[in-house]
Amino acid sequence: SSFLTEVTVFIKRISRKTDLSNMAKTMRRVLNSNSKVTVLLSDLRAVVNQGFLDVPGNLFQENLRNPEELQNNIELKCLKDLMSLLASSTDIRVLLNCMASNLQAFVIQPSSSKEELRKLASDFQLRWNFLLSAVSKAMTLNYADSFG
């Protein structure tokens, strides 16, 4: 039984590495093409600015620009920061550093214990996944060129 558990864990790890590898290859193709990045940014801005996202209370309304609201919507801040960077840099290290800085500021530093860190990290991951799913859905339903 414990052998079967180890096999299952191993298979999941291999699957994750394969998924990450495929994602990295796709991202490399997109980030190395200025025209693809331009189209992607245009599609993202359309989804965000035209309110196509099917999320409660439309997280992307302009009135969420004050610091208190952004503090409560760090996934929104992360996405907007990444979009801003994409206009000038497609270096994956720059994009990852941006994400790491936001996580440091909004998840890691505010945590006073291991339990609080787990909760904040788990909450962020859930909201981030939800947001990215909403963006993908909106881009797909609106026939975004970057999703062709």
UniProtKB/TrEMBL annotation:
One of its GO terms (molecular function) is RNA polymerase II cis-regulatory region sequence-specific DNA binding. The gene is Rfx8. This is RFX8 protein. InterPro entries: RFX-like, RFX1-4/6/8-like_BCD. Pfam families: BCD_RFX (PF25340). Residues 5-148 form the RFX1-4/6/8-like BCD domain. PANTHER family: DNA-BINDING PROTEIN RFX8, RFX TRANSCRIPTION FACTOR FAMILY.
